Amino acid sequence: MDKEQEQKLVLKIADLLRENKGLSNQLKELTEDHKRLSKQNEKLDNIISSLPPDVLPKEASSQIKSRTKRFAMATILYADIQGFKNIAEQTGTSAIIDELDQIIFHFNSIVKKYKIQKIKTIGDAYMCAGGVPVKNITNPVDVVLAALEMQDYLNTLKVEYESQNKKFWDLKMGIHTGPVTATFSGRKNISYELKGETVHIATRMASASDVSKINISIMTYELVKQYFVCDYNGKIPVKYKGEMEMYFLKRIKPAYSEDRKKGRCPNQILWNKYLLRQFTDLQELILDRLEKDLPSYLYYHNFKHTIDVINQAELIGYGEGVDDESILLLKTAALFHDAGHIIDYDEHEYNGTQLAREYLPKYRYTQEQIDKICELIMVTKLPPKPNNVLESIMCDSDLDYLGRSDFIPVSNTLYKELKEQNKIGSLNDWNKIQVKFLSNHHFFTQTGKNLREVNKQMQIERIKKLIED
C-alpha cells in the first residue's frame, strides 16, 4: 500500500470515527428522550385513568380499551360475604339477592369515600384495591379504614336482623399489600383486572380469617401498626415465600380515635399524621407542575427553591419544637408559596393561595388548615412581617439562603431573573441593594439566628468588597 492509499485510508477511518461518534450521541439523545417520554406517558396514563369516562374524547377513550400497568405498592381487600345457604332456607332467593345488593351498594360508597378502586364482585365475594389506578403512599391506611367501616356496617345490620330472629350474612376479610399488575379495559365503564401474588395472598388472608374478623398480612401490618391495634393470628404457608405471619385488625389506637372506647372514628391527630405521609404524593404532583409550567426566566424562583424552602421549614419547625400539624402546614405552605409564578410574577403569593385552595380540599385538608396555609404563603411577601411562631418559621425558611455560604451564587440567579424582566439595573446596583437588604434583615426564630445570622454578617462584608464606587 503506497503513501497516498494510506492517507485515504486514514481519512476514511477518521470519517467513520466522526460518524460513529455522531451516531453514539444521537443514540444517547434518543435514549434520554425515550426515558423522558416514557415518564410523561406514565403520568398521562395515571391522569386519564383517574378521569370519568364521559369527559374523555372518543379517541382518548379508544386508546384505553385494554392496557396493562404495574404498581409497586397496592393494598388488596378481599371480602368473603358468607351465609347464602343458611339464609336461603329462611328467605326467598330474590330477597337474598336484594340484601346482597344492598351490602355491595354500601361497600361501594365506603370504597369511594376512601378513594379506593372497586375491582370486581363475584357472587358473594367483593374485591377492591388502594393505590390503583392512581399511585399513592397512603393506600394501606385507606384500605384498613375502609375495612373497619365495612365490618361495622355488616355487624350493625346483623344485630338488627338477629333481633327479629332472622339469619344474616357473615363477613371474612383479608388484606395484603404488595406489587400488582393491573389491566384496564372499556370506554364508558372502565373495568380493572388485577393479577399477581398480592391478589392471591389477599384471598388466602380472607380464607384464614375468622367470621366477622379482618385478617391482614405482615406486610400490611408493618405499614399500619403505628395507628391500629392488631392481634397476632399465627402463620400461613405461602407458595415460594414459606410461612407468612398474619394479624387480626381490631381497631384504631385510642390515641388516634375520636371514639376512644370503640376505636372506629379517626381523630385529627391521626389525620395529621396521615396528611404528613400523604404529603409525598402532593409534593410530587405540584413539583411536576412547577417543572413543566414555570416560565424559563425563573432562575431563582424555580422548583429547586421550593424544595429548599420545604426542607428548611421542616428543619426550623422541628428546631422550634412545633407539633406535627404545624410541620404539615409549614411544608404545604412552602410547597405552594412560589407556585403562583405559574400565573403571574408580581402577585405570585396571592396566586399561590388560589392554587392551594384548588388542590388541598382533594387531599383531606380541613378548611381551617387551608386558611392557615394561605396566611403562611402571604407572609412570604416582602418585606417579611410575621405575627406568630409559624409565620416566623416561614419567613426564615424562605430567606434561609441569606445566611448560607452559597449566598452569592444564589443571589446572582435572582439578579439574572430580575434582569431578564428589566426589573433591575447593573450588577453593581444589585450589590448595593443586597447590602441594604441584608443590613436591614434579621432572622425571627432562635433556630434561624443560631444557624444563619453569623454567616449573613459575613456575606455583607463580602458583597461590600464587590461594589464599585
Word description of this protein:
The protein has 469 residues and is α+β, with helices and mostly antiparallel strands. The protein has two domains: 53-266, Nucleotide cyclase, GGDEF domain (Alpha-Beta Plaits, 2-Layer Sandwich), CATH 3.30.70; 275-466, Hypothetical protein af1432 (Orthogonal Bundle), CATH 1.10.3210.10. Helix content is 55%, strand content 16%. Strands 1, 2, 3, 4, 5, 6, 7 and 8 form an eight-stranded mixed β-sheet that branches. Strand 4 and strand 5 form a beta hairpin. Helix 8 packs parallel to helix 10, helix 10 crosses helix 12 (367-378) and helix 15 (427-440) runs antiparallel to helix 16.
Features of this protein?
469 residues, Alpha-Beta Plaits, Hypothetical protein af1432, 2 domains, 16 helices, 55% helix
- SSE order: HHEHHEEHEEHEHEEHHHHHHHHH
- Alpha plus pi helix count: 16
CATH superfamily of the largest domain: Nucleotide cyclase, GGDEF domain
The geometry reads as: globular
